[in-house]
Amino acid sequence: MKYTRLTKEQLEELHMEFSRFLAAQSITAQEWEAIKRDKPEVAEQELDVFSDLVWEGVLKAAKFLEHRSNGQLFLFELDTSEIHLIAIRVTNPSVDLTTSTGLDWLGQNLGKEEVQVYRSTKTYGEDPHADVFDLIQKGAVLTSGELYKQLKGIL
């Protein structure tokens, strides 16, 4: 398995896609039930393969990621050969960048001493999808990139 297995909740959300995945392998619903009952290791392998396929699709489509914490904001743009980062650190302990109030404060105080802005670019390693997956595993979430684009325009 290249990535991680989807959670039970994620698999439930992707029930129809998983059914199509099994159908593409000519596995009927009755056969799937028998596999789960009689060959649990095969069922586990099928879930792993399906999970990797889903992750590959998600990672291939990803264009922007965000990772927020109370005093820090990491915004990533994922292009074909590099990851571009805008990192913001707020030294004011009363500001929480995980809230809309904190982001409003940031917008009003972007040029002030309490706000430190860093920019960086990193070339992908051998496997770009693995690099993006690593960021997600560390807490980054997929976004539309709206905040990244706004800050990039200002900076």
Automatic annotation (TrEMBL):
Name of the protein in its database record: Histidyl-tRNA synthetase
Organism encoding this protein: Aureitalea marina
